[in-house]
Fold this sequence. Notes:
It contains 5 helices and 10 strands. By secondary structure, the chain is α+β, with helices and mostly antiparallel strands. α2 packs parallel to α5 and α3 runs parallel beside α4.
Amino acid sequence: MYIGIAAAAVVALCCIGLVCCKNILCCEGAARTSALFFSKPPIESKMTTPSPPPAKPLPAVSTSAHLQSSAPRFAAVTRTTGETSITLRLALPSTGAPLVDAPIDVATGIGFFDHARLYLLAKSETNMLHAFAKHSGIALELRCAGDLHVDDHHTVEDVALALGTAFKQALGPPKGIRRYGTAYAPLDEALARAVVDISGRAFCDFGGPVAFTRASVGSLSTEMVPHFFESFASAAAITVHVDVLKGVNDHHKAEAAFKAFAVAVREAIAPYGNAVPSTKGTLDV
């Protein structure tokens, strides 16, 4: 009987030893596997951030007589940062009437922001920079290559800054002009009002009782519409008030705002006497 009990005990001990050895081997294997797994260098992503395509450069010399360096109220601006590269030529009307056969050639990569004929996918859109140039009576050639793979913010902002800078340079000392301009522009159910003061002081207020309801119109963010006017006013050192008074369709609201601003600008820079239009005798300080 004792022999049987001893034999059973030996068998039990052997089984326990085998289980322990198995567990130890499993743990060691898991540890080796874990070490191999965690010791491997991280897999490097082969994905790269796409770069914006370069904008087609403007010709060295414009074919338009309005956009020669000898033309009245002409300015050329180049603006290059790590976010955008912009070149533009601009000429303002000097008689109060729009320039005759003024060229308008704009490309920023944002269809709703540009000139429709440059974008096959945007032929049905009336684009904002084209509308601004057309209704303010200016000649404009502009190219911008921006980081649109990020979003449209830097492109819209920097284009507005470059345009405002060129506007200020082309206008020159603010004398012999009306200084103030006011305009209403409807587009179907939408109505916008713009008031401009060539004041030498940068200020912009964009508002009105009607707000945008969409995040974007085409590839232009609606939040960038007021920011365009803010940036332009800042660089041009003018006072701008734009209000969207009525409207349902955001495309109509934005277009009405740009057109009203354009007409107000055209009125403000129209010739009027020869004096500085200020009781303090200057608008430069």
